[in-house]
């Protein structure tokens, strides 16, 4: 429904009217200027570059998309700019085979190959190497995962298991979000957007240079999104607003060394209508719940190039998060460190080896709806992996074999191997097949949480009684054995087809059983 503007002579409405005109004018100016910028950026790419788009998520190295032995798609910064996308979940709607559903103004359900709901726990999401997966309930709190989209470089999406390189919970897919180097975001940028549900969204960024080897950028973003409308015509009470800021520095310490330091902070508020149980008729009540969340993160990465076929990298980050929404109160601190070493053995073997450690500590305050036992817990995760990419026939046949070994405090040791075969009979045609094993670890809620459910009032005695979802401390990891077969063909530089088939066999799926 197009937005309407009600005119009035009151000073406040006059101010709002002037403000709206200014924002619309700015938006019109930016829309008019955008196509020229997009055309210019595309003109900078040669036809060979357009035909040889590369990805990193499949093998943790630059690989041509046509040489990737997985079902993978890319969303680029140009895609986002052309379509006027304002959130990361909206950008993911462009990915074929990805289930994206918006539940209210700030909550999304996103998954690959089924099992989609608000806490989809079989999809691993990373932003610049930092895991966004929630150990409390599983899945990703998409309302908190925002950034200045003008700084986004690309989103790579793997449909299917990626646990050998990325670890637990990369069961049905991996989403890898990467931002641009600060060297590529120099100067001042002011961006704004305005829509029927989108109040003025404003982003400001400044990038500078200390010297030719050291670049930086800083940004600040504010947004305010209106409530959704109910079918009855009323407001859903789920408005969403927040502020986010951050920085990034990239230092070319030498011809072989690159050091990156980046951080973000945020504060967000949103609303939600929930149905709460009660023991008197009508045994439930609708109530608006306000959610306030804030947090921040700091990440550092060092990469050394040893040769054309060898490099070493070390990354560490710290993440702090706190939320309160009336239903649950959570404070979480996470520290993570990991290292990787890629090297070649002869002319046929390209190996990558790595190891990592993650520590997370949480504090929960019980509410009438949720309880936790224990209220605080420390969790540790250790992992190591090895993968070998073997060239059987140069430019024709390649075999990749690897496995990840992980240890978590809930289920102990987990092994997640995979084998992939890529056959390229012609430079425009490729066929790939894979066999993989992946696991999804139990969440804090599924092991140690209790969520009060609806009230029933038709028991034999005529008295109301209440249901509850109670965690099971004997839960083990959900397991997947996946078998995939795919085919790609590039008909022309502008037209290509990608066919991916799969057969998934799951064990130990978590569900709800009836108790007493």
Keywords:
15-stranded antiparallel beta sheet; disordered N terminus; 2 domains; Maltoporin, Chain A; single chain; mainly beta; 5-stranded mixed beta sheet; 6 helices; globular
How would you characterize the overall build of this protein?
This protein is mainly beta. It folds into 2 domains: 11-47; 55-507, TonB-dependent receptor, beta-barrel domain (Maltoporin, Chain A). It is built from 6 helices and 27 strands. It has helices spanning 11-43, 47-51, 77-83, 88-92, 163-166, 444-448; strands at residues 54-55, 63-64, 71-76, 98-102, 108-112, 123-127, 130-131, 152-159, 173-179, 187-193, 201-211, 214-225, 240-251, 257-277, 284-307, 310-324, 329-345, 349-365, 370-372, 376-393, 397-408, 412-426, 429-440, 449-456, 465-470, 478-492, 495-507. The strands form 5 sheets. It has a 15-stranded antiparallel sheet with strand order 10-11-12-13-14-15-16-17-18-20-21-22-23-26-27. Strands 3-8-9-6-7 form a 5-stranded mixed sheet. A hairpin with a 2-residue loop joins strand 6 and strand 7 (130-131). Residues 1-51 have low confidence and may be disordered.
How would you summarize the topology of this molecule?
Layout: H1 11-43, H2 47-51, E1 54-55, E2 63-64, E3 71-76, H3 77-83, H4 88-92, E4 98-102, E5 108-112, E6 123-127, E7 130-131, E8 152-159, H5 163-166, E9 173-179, E10 187-193, E11 201-211, E12 214-225, E13 240-251, E14 257-277, E15 284-307, E16 310-324, E17 329-345, E18 349-365, E19 370-372, E20 376-393, E21 397-408, E22 412-426, E23 429-440, H6 444-448, E24 449-456, E25 465-470, E26 478-492, E27 495-507
Parallel strand pairs: 6-9
Antiparallel strand pairs: 1-2, 3-8, 4-5, 6-7, 8-9, 10-11, 11-12, 12-13, 13-14, 14-15, 15-16, 16-17, 17-18, 18-20, 19-24, 20-21, 21-22, 22-23, 23-26, 24-25, 26-27
């Amino acid at each position: 429904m197009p937005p309407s503007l009600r005119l009035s002579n009151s000073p406040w409405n006059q101010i709002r009217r002037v403000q709206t005109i200014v924002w619309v004018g700015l938006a019109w100016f930016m829309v008019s200027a955008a196509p020229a910028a997009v055309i210019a950026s595309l003109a900078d790419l040669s036809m060979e570059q357009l035909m040889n788009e590369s990805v990193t998520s499949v093998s943790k190295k630059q690989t041509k998309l046509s040489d990737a032995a997985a079902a993978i798609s890319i969303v680029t910064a140009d895609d986002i700019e052309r379509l006027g996308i304002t959130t990361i979940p909206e950008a993911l709607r462009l990915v074929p085979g990805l289930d994206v559903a918006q539940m209210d103004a700030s909550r999304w359900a996103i998954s690959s190959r089924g099992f989609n709901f608000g806490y989809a726990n079989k999809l691993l999401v990373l932003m610049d190497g930092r895991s966004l997966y929630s150990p409390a309930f599983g899945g990703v709190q998409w309302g908190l995962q925002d950034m200045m989209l003008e700084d986004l470089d690309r989103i790579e999406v793997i449909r299917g298991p990626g646990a050998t390189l990325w670890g637990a919970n990369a069961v049905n897919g991996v989403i890898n979000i990467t931002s641009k180097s600060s060297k590529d975001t120099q100067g001042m940028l002011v961006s704004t957007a305005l829509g029927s549900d989108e109040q003025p969204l404003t982003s400001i960024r400044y990038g500078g240079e200390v010297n030719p080897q050291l670049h930086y950028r800083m940004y600040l973003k504010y947004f305010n999104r209106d409530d959704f409308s109910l079918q009855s015509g009323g407001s859903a009470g789920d408005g969403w607003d927040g502020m986010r800021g951050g920085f990034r520095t990239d230092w070319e310490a030498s011809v072989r060394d690159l050091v990156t330091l980046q951080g973000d902070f945020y504060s967000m508020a949103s609303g939600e209508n929930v149905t709460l149980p009660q023991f008197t008729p009508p045994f439930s009540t609708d109530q608006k719940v306000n959610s306030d969340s804030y947090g921040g993160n700091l990440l550092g990465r060092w990469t050394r190039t040893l040769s054309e076929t060898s490099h070493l990298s070390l990354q560490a980050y710290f993440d702090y998060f706190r939320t309160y929404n009336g239903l649950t109160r959570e404070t979480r601190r996470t520290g993570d460190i990991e290292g990787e070493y890629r090297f070649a053995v002869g002319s046929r073997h390209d190996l990558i080896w790595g190891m990592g450690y993650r520590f997370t500590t949480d504090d929960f305050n019980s509410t009438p709806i949720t309880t936790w036992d224990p209220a605080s817990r420390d969790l540790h995760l250790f992992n190591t992996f090895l993968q070998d990419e073997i060239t059987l026939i140069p430019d024709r046949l390649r075999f990749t074999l690897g496995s990840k070994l992980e240890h978590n405090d809930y289920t102990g040791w987990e092994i997640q191997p995979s084998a992939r075969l890529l056959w390229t009979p012609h430079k425009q045609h490729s066929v790939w097949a894979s066999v993989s094993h992946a696991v999804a670890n139990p969440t804090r809620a599924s092991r140690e949480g209790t969520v009060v459910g609806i009230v029933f009032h038709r028991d034999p005695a005529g008295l109301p009684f209440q249901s509850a979802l109670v965690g099971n401390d004997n839960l083990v990891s959900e397991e997947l054995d996946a078998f995939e077969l795919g085919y790609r063909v590039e008909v022309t530089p502008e037209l290509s087809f990608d066919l991916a088939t799969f057969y998934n066999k799951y064990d130990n799926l978590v569900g709800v059983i009836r108790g007493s």
